[in-house]
Design a protein that fits this description.
Elements (H helix, E strand, L loop, with lengths): L1 E4 L4 E5 L5 E6 L2 H29 L5 H26 L5 H6 L1 E5 L7 H9 L1 H6 L1 H9 L7 H6 L1 E5 L14 H7 L10 H13 L5 H4 L1
Antiparallel strand pairs: 1-2, 2-3, 3-5, 4-5
Helix pairs in contact: 1-2, 2-4
């Protein structure tokens, strides 16, 4: 279930565990620089491969070199974004640099099929940029055509929440510690989860904290 505040572009997602999270949606003008960064990387990769193939495969056959360049250009242009979002948890290099991430409507990580499909649909936005921009501007979740088809959204990650060790002066924490065995060892993953919760608990309502 998701409830969105249209004024500040906040969408609220409640997980099956009844835990609520709020995400700030990324608008078209925040997503554009990330796209330009990714596009520049794709061009750079294709240019580098073109130089390598021209200096190697051309000696064997010019036709084979041209065919290889076209195949690689097609594969990188169409699947670079999808593969990055599949293996980098919803991020491309451009999204990572600008603190953006692609998620599902439910706030969950996207699947490989969603990542590939939403990037393949980018052709519609590139061929009809005015239509793509119009769809995003008049969409409550700022979704482009690929997002609508794949069921995804792009959000801004609130990185400033994680600010190191949080100070906890609640006396109840000392009382709770008395119930733990003296030889109890907290695992690294549990310690990280607890530290993250302590830092973020001020953003949760009292019922969510309980």
């Amino acid at each position: 279930m998701a409830k969105q505040d249209k004024l500040d572009s906040i969408i609220r997602v409640v997980t099956p565990e009844n835990i609520g999270f709020e995400y700030r949606l990324a608008g078209p003008f925040r997503r554009l620089p990330a796209f330009l960064i990714d596009f520049a990387i794709v061009i750079a990769i294709n240019a580098a491969l073109m130089c390598v193939i021209s200096m190697t495969v051309t000696w064997v056959s010019e036709g084979l070199a041209v065919f290889t360049i076209l195949v690689l250009w097609f594969a990188i242009f169409w699947f670079f974004g999808g593969m990055c979002e599949t293996f980098l948890n919803g991020q491309t290099p451009g999204k990572w640099l600008l603190g953006l991430r692609t998620l599902t409507y439910e706030g969950q990580p996207i699947s490989a099929l969603q990542a590939i499909f939403r990037n393949l649909m980018r052709a519609a936005d590139l061929l009809m940029p005015l239509l793509g921009l119009t769809v995003m501007m008049f969409n409550r979740r700022f979704q482009r055509l690929g997002d609508l088809v794949a069921g995804t959204i792009v959000v801004v990650e609130e990185r400033h929440w994680l600010t190191g060790v949080a100070k906890l002066d609640d006396p109840r924490a000392i009382q709770l510690a008395a119930y733990l065995p003296p030889n109890y060892v907290v695992s690294r993953s549990l310690a990280k989860a607890l530290a993250t919760y302590v830092e973020r608990r001020k953003f949760f309502s009292p019922p969510r904290r309980r």
